[in-house]
Amino acid sequence: MTNQQKKVNKEFPIASWAINNKTTMYVLMLVIFSLGLSAFLTMPRESFPEIKETKIYISSLFPGNTAEDVEKLITDPLEDKLKTLSGVVDITSTSQEDYSMVTVEFEEGISVETAKQKVKDEVDSEVSSEDWPTFNGAKVDPNIFELSISEEVAILNINISGDYPVEKLKEFGEYLQDEIEDLPEIKKVDIRGAEDKEVEVAVDIYKMMAARVSFGDIINAINNGNLTMSAGNLVASGQRRTIRIVGEIEKPSQLENFVVKSENGNSIYLKDIAQIFFKDKEKTTYAREYDSSLKKGTPVVMLDVKKRAGQNMVRAAEQIQEIVEDTKAKIFPPNLKVTISNDQSSKTIGQVDDIVNNIIFGVILVVMVLMFFLGFKNALFVGFAIPMSMFMSLMILNAMGYTMNTMILFGLIMGLGMLVDNGIVVVENVYRLMDEEGMSRIEAAKKGIGEIAFPIIISTLTTVAAFLPLGFWPGVMGQFMIYFPVTLSVVLGSSLFVAIFFNSVMVSQLMTTEDKNMPLNRIITITSILALIGILIYFFGGSSGALGTIMVFTAIMFWVYRFALRPMANRFQNIVLPRWERFYEGMIRGALKGWRSIAVSLGTLVLLVISISGFITSSKSGRTEVEFFPDNKPNQIIVYIEYPEGTDIEKTNEITKAVEDQVYGILNDSEYVDDKGYNFLVESAVSQVGAGAGNPQTDGGSSARMPHKGKITATMREFKFRRGAKSEELQAKVQEALKDVYPGVSISVEKDAVGPPA
Fold first, then answer.
1. Residue among 494, 501, 499 at smallest CA distance from 415
2. Of 68, 133, 338, 355, which is least packed with CB atoms within 10 Å of its CB?
3. Contact 638, 712 (CB under 8 A)
4. Minimal CA–CA distance to 637: which of 578, 682, 592?
5. Are 715 and 341 in contact (CB under 8 A)?
């Protein structure tokens, strides 16, 4: 064999091995399909990827002190101590009544764990000093933690209301709280709009003075009397038994018989000098839900549900929905109203549905286009590469520990248009060798893959290389953007693997150059079975109903192809395609003659320079706006209300009610409500005052009471249900309506934060 023949008849060894071991490849296809499907169903779903910032937070509770005292005694000493740490970029702090928050930002090269340990060592050193303040006989203990914003934002709210006292509604809320917090996906559930009970001892100062009793006597009497303690062991009947003295009270009325002081045989009881009440603690939170029938916010006991970082938001929301429905049916009374609002999982579900729809339509469009060039059967080989590459990519991404988030989905959708290229080149080259060279399927597959193996490998690597620099982006932004190049690299690598191994095996076994008509009786049999199974799955398959729709659609397309698409494809291959080929050949020959090749090259270079210069000029002039991250359409509109520090919660609640009425009036304008009273833009709205009303983006997970803050949250419906209404216009209306209306109050109208952390 000559050298020229060796070059023409070369094979790609691993592809030839795959063709010779087709059974192994079929098993591998099944394994990858199963693992990929499992990954798709089980991968944690969230809106955006979790980013670990090198920020450490130190929060300190110092009850009963002003913001000035908190700053002087806690914040300033901590700042002075932490400034000495190496690798610190910035230190910021917030001091308010009863609470201090210090944020330490480190350089990017330091891990979060190392930074946290450094801060802990310095804080412990400061706390151990003699000047550190104490509370209730113990030193104030700062809490040191790293913060994940996703764990501070509620994924949904559960609102409980009805003709019951707040105490009873709180009991219902506590039951749901316990049930939901048992879920592994949930970090915590906070109850808003209800307070715990406390015992108040209202002392009569004159009776105290007459009985010569001090406040210390009362406090000591309650502390020593309300106590369960161990009294040692007792050996009896050959057994050692532990003795406990139970002294804890079960009812507040038992405090009345506590002896405060005893002199000369006369005992002074607590009931002699004080009155004892069991009542709610001081109000620290209010919660209301918008009631469309009353056109205003109604008080509720609200549960803020927060998930753990990296957990499946969609699965958590589904399980919570099941818990709520089951509890309403079996535990709660029928006249109790329990609703779910601000559910953030619907957006994530929509994103996942979009990727599935894109994959399905991608397969359909690719098969239809290739059908005109290669025939229907051969086009299916390339169409097969799309879902197979996607499943393989999901399997790899799941093994890498990634979640199903916006950046991953964006990478998958973008890669959808690229991954078919390798399959097209493989199938078309094998088809050419069979059609023009008269080779058998197996020979054409081996030699066809051998001819184009290295070109498609190099082509894939160059495409990956174009996105590779994004993976070396430093800092927090690099952590966010790295998902994109990684996803594209995995998708393109998977498509290359599928093309070389799986497509080569399938074309070596099934490819034909003749597009024969399928017998009518076979079409009738196949389509009948597909349609029948599809209809059954659609009506009785539950969440798998979409599969039934696809099967029915496939059955219909068999007939469409037989009587419409196939004649069109034959006409295209016999008449249109030859004309296009002759026209293209003439254009290429003309462009390569004499001086024309130089002119085309120079013209291309000039156009490149002109386009780049035009873009730069347009950007500098402001005609073309340049944004780092695209502005999102609001899925939530959030109104933050803030009075000056020290404002009583009742005053904040009053102003929040006034803002509520104004905001709800705009949200339920006739422009967004149809004739039946259905609001097709706004799904739900809730408001909170006090605890839980802070902005998680700026408050850094603060657990302070915040009596001077209020928050109104309106959640929009999914885009497909909005009937063309624009949420950004609604946000602008709310901003304009609240502008300069309430002097002395800071009001900001924001939307849900998306994209990389600022």
1. 494
2. 68
3. yes
4. 682
5. yes
**Pairing mode of beta strands 239-245, 229-236:** antiparallel
Calpha distance 455→428 (Å, rounded): 14
Tell me if 406 sits within 8 A of 47, measured CB to CB.
yes
Coil, strand, or helix at residue 212? coil
pLDDT tens profile 741-750? 888 888 889 8
d(CA 199, CA 8): 93
Contacts 24+ apart (CB under 8 A), 696-701: 696/149, 696/152, 696/153, 697/149, 697/753, 699/94, 699/101, 700/57, 700/94, 700/101, 700/103, 700/147, 701/57, 701/59, 701/145, 701/147, 701/151, 701/152
Q: What is the per-residue pLDDT across 457-486, written as a single tens digit (0 to 9) for each?
A: 998 899 888 888 887 877 777 777 888 889
Strand boundaries in 62-196, DSSP class E? 88-96, 99-106, 134-135, 138-139, 143-145, 156-161, 186-192
Residues 6+ apart with CB under 8 A from 634: 716, 727, 728, 730, 731, 751, 752
DSSP state for residue 679 in the 8-state scheme: B
User: Tokens 């270079």 correspond to what residue?
Assistant: 605
- pLDDT tens for each residue of 326-359: 999 999 998 899 998 888 887 777 777 777 777 7
pTM, two decimal places: 0.74
pLDDT above 60 (res 186): yes
Determine the Cα–Cα distance for residues 669 and 689; give it in Å rounded to an integer. 25
Q: Are the C-beta atoms of residues 386 and 366 closer than 8 Å to each other? A: yes
Q: Within the chain, what is the greatest distance between any pair of CA atoms?
A: 127
Q: Are 507 and 439 in contact (CB under 8 A)?
A: no
Q: How far apart are CA 687 and CA 1, in angstroms?
A: 83
Give, in order, the Cα–Cα distances in Å from 115 to each of 53, 121, 697, 731: 11, 10, 21, 39
Radius of gyration of the chain (CA): 35
* Integer Cα distance of 378 and 433 in angstroms: 14
Cβ atoms of 689 and 674 closer than 8 Å: no
- The structure tokens 């955006």 sit at 48
- Rounded Cα distance, 208 and 274, in Å: 9
- Two tokens, residue 716: 């929009």
d(CA 508, CA 355): 31
Would you state the structure tokens that stand for residue 692, as one six-digit string? 């839980």
